[in-house]
Amino acid sequence: MTEYTYKDGYLLDDVNRIIMPYWEAPIMEKAAEVICQNKGRVLNIGFGLGLVDSYIEEYDIDEHWIIECHKDVLAHMKDKGWYDKKNVKVIEGRWEDVIPSIDTTFDGIYHDTWASTNINNTLVPQLDRLLNDNGWFSFWCVADQAMVKYYTNLFDNFGMSTRVDEVIIDEGSIEEHKKVFIKDIKRKYINISAQKNSNKRLKTVI
């Protein structure tokens, strides 16, 4: 497993590649707003810098679940007291292994992991059983209209309504944004969220 280091607001791997930068905070703030609007029980998949989890904690929710697999991130979480928070439940493991065994439902789910399995054929088809009625699933991507169209169609096929929030990030150099995301995205990012529609029958994994 690649070693991770926390340094000056960044999560870095062993060759100083940025796994997560501090300047993603506005994306995470918007995501927390979406997935916490029904309160109840909220799940975050992938802790990273803990940005979205910190924003989630600002809301009056009942339970806050976190799935994380990396040993260095888990050690950081323990050091920062996340394991000791009253309403937080930390599950150690790869989400691909953990999700199938979860028999609890959530009012909001967020996904942001590094180099993990594509969610389209794994996580998305399981949202029917994981989300409560009117619950929200959210993740982010670069501001690409083709991507928005793809996921709007995907979620529509599962009977879910799609919400798109564009976020402009002022912090971080243009060179850094390009380095992290390979291409120049003009500081534009998108939170794509999908709401379970109780009036439609969603597809489920068989």
* Gyration radius from CA atoms, angstroms: 16 Å
Distance between the termini: 32 Å
Compressed to H and E, one letter per element, the order equals EEEHEHEHEHEHEHEHE
Biggest sheet character: 7 strands, mixed
Poorly predicted spans: 202-206
Bin the strand percentage. Answer: 25-35%
Number of strands: 10
Shape: globular
Structural class: alpha/beta
Major beta sheet, strand line-up:
6-5-4-7-8-10-9
Query: Helical proportion?
Result: 25-40%
Number of helices, counting only DSSP H or I runs of 4 residues or more: 7
Q: What is the typical, i.e. mean, pLDDT?
A: 89
Structure description:
Helix 5 (127-130) links the parallel strand 7 and strand 8 (131-142). The chain has 206 residues and is an alpha/beta fold. The chain has helices at residues 25-35, 51-56, 71-79, 95-98, 127-130, 145-157, 174-181, and strands at residues 5-7, 10-12, 18-21, 41-45, 63-68, 88-92, 106-111, 131-142, 160-168, 188-196. The model is unreliable at 202-206 (pLDDT under 50). The protein has a seven-stranded mixed sheet with strand order 6-5-4-7-8-10-9, with helices on both faces. A three-stranded antiparallel sheet has the order 1-2-3, with no helix packed on it. It is globular and about 45 Å long.
